[in-house]
Design a protein that fits this description.
Structural class: mainly alpha
Largest sheet: none
Low-confidence stretches: none
Radius of gyration: 30 Å
Number of strands: 0
Shape: flat
Length: 86
């Protein structure tokens, strides 16, 4: 084996050993729970799909649920129609 190839093998082994020499990170054990100060979300006992009293409500959750229901109903109608054709 030539010395040039041997040098490449040694450099490659050194680079691989650097990859596996990682250190562990110390993460905090206790997490701080942030409570909302400006809104009354902490007092709410239930969740609404569309809450008109919230000024930041844009109705995107209602649109998503409506779209999912529409797609499922269209698939059901297509399935019933195709089963009646046979």
């Amino acid at each position: 084996m030539s010395s040039e190839f041997r040098q490449y093998i040694i450099e490659d082994a050194y680079k691989k050993s650097e990859i596996f020499s990682a250190q562990l990170l110390k993460l905090p054990i206790k997490k701080k729970i942030l409570k909302a100060k400006t809104t009354n979300l902490d007092k709410c006992a239930y969740w609404k799909l569309y809450d008109k009293t919230n000024i930041y409500e844009d109705g995107d959750q209602l649109k998503a649920v409506t779209g999912i229901c529409l797609v499922l109903s269209v698939f059901s109608i297509i399935g019933l129609y195709s089963s009646l054709l046979n």
